[in-house]
């Protein structure tokens, strides 16, 4: 299995490589100075939406943040321990082929524990996304329309519409999703579910 990813050290490395103080990064990201400090010290695990705000201010994509700087050689198969987890510690979003150069879509194995949510803020980004619920149930809000989907149900929508994901059930929800373009690899742009 993968070693735990050091979010704090990676954020600090990226911030320093851009010559930014914690205060300047916080200002650009619209978060408090203490938030940046706590994340860099690994004293707090940021939500995906908070991490996205911070990374957008650098700008660095969530995929690049977790994948590091080294692209990998294209390969056709990926074992579960080769997927890059871009979740927030509560939500698990495991990205297929995160380091593949010239990737044109994002495929994600998502896990939402009971009560988990993509965040209070509605998400919007370029592209389209779709997925199939494998287990459990998910409540998806798209442009004000709410649907609760169960195992075998699916969704597909224009990602520019405001959207949000929430698990209202008592069991874990598992989804396999795809989005295009691969916003998890385009630095500085909005991220899928983030």
From TrEMBL:
Q: Could you confirm whether the keyword Cell wall biogenesis/degradation appears in this record?
A: no
Which interval of the chain is the signal sequence?
Answer: none
Annotated keywords: DNA-binding
Q: Tell me yes or no: is DNA-binding among this UniProt entry's keywords.
A: yes
Its transmembrane ranges are: none
Kindly give the SMART domains that the UniProt entry links to this protein: HTH_XRE (SM00530)
Q: Where is the HTH cro/C1-type domain?
A: 11-65
Instruction: Output the SUPFAM superfamilies linked to this UniProt entry.
Output: lambda repressor-like DNA-binding domains, RmlC-like cupins
| InterPro entries according to UniProt | Cro/C1-type_HTH (IPR001387), Cupin_2 (IPR013096), Lambda_DNA-bd_dom_sf (IPR010982), RmlC-like_jellyroll (IPR014710), RmlC_Cupin_sf (IPR011051), TransReg_Diox_bact_type (IPR050807)
- Which Pfam families does the annotation name? Cupin_2 (PF07883), HTH_3 (PF01381)
Q: Which domain of life is it from?
A: Bacteria
PANTHER family in the record, alphabetically?
A: HTH-TYPE TRANSCRIPTIONAL REGULATOR, HTH-TYPE TRANSCRIPTIONAL REGULATOR PUUR
Record protein name field: Cupin domain-containing protein
């Amino acid at each position: 299995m993968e070693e735990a990813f050091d979010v704090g050290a990676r954020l600090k490395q990226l911030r320093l490589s851009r010559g930014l103080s914690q205060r300047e990064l916080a200002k650009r990201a619209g978060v408090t100075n203490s938030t940046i400090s706590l994340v860099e010290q690994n004293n707090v695990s940021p939500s995906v939406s908070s991490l996205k705000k911070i990374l957008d201010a650098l700008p660095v994509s969530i995929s690049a943040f977790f994948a590091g700087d080294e692209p990998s050689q294209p390969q056709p198969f990926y074992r579960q321990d080769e997927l890059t987890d871009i979740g927030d510690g509560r939500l698990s979003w495991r990205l297929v082929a995160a380091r593949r150069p010239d990737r044109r879509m994002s495929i994600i194995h998502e896990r939402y524990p009971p009560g988990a949510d993509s965040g209070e803020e509605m998400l919007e980004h370029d592209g389209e996304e779709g997925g199939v619920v494998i287990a459990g149930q998910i409540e998806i809000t798209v442009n004000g329309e709410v649907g609760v989907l169960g195992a075998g149900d699916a969704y597909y929508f224009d990602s520019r519409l405001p959207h949000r994901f929430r698990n209202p059930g008592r069991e874990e929800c598992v989804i396999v999703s795809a989005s295009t373009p691969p916003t998890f690899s385009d630095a500085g742009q909005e991220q899928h579910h983030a």
